[in-house]
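Pinned message: reference record for GNAT family N-acetyltransferase
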Amino acid sequence: MSITLTTWSLEQTSPSDLRPATPPEGEDVTIRRAEVPSAEFSRFLYTAVGGDIRWSDRLSLTFKQWQEIVEKPGAEIWVAYDKGTPAGYVELDPQDDGVVEIVYFGLIPAFRGRRIGGHLLSYGTARAWDLAERWPDREETKRVWLHTCSLDGPHAMANYERRGFRLFDTKVEEAEEADTPGPWPGAHA
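Predicted structure (tokens):
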């Protein structure tokens, strides 16, 4: 079956564009960088967060391809934990000319709706802006961008806009509707 898919691209062009969310009150939420490049952990986060919203573009990657992504100099994965349990993540991809893309961002379904997402997005965006501090061979960040689509959660676009991201492109296309890939069928029923 064919569906209409809308993709929105958003950006920040200055660290002062970031409008941080207030950390969730009463929650034991910490955010840490996954400093050991691990294809297995990255794939776990990808399927756990994106399984119910049809993330599938990386599912066909080999272990070697996945490992190359996480070992790319300047690539970072920042993970939110709630009482020690992974709740979601932000993946940063360093690009040329001081550009950083937030390639993936989201929460595992059980952790959505608890104000963790705004906090994690704020933190991850700040880490995109200060990426050169951790990677000395990298030039200072001049632009942070991301894209979201009509398959993402209902609060995604509003969260990005509240954090100071501005729309710079919209694409509408017909796409084949895919089943949700997991993390396994029926996990979130």
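Pinned by admin. Summary line: DSSP finds five helices and seven strands in the chain.
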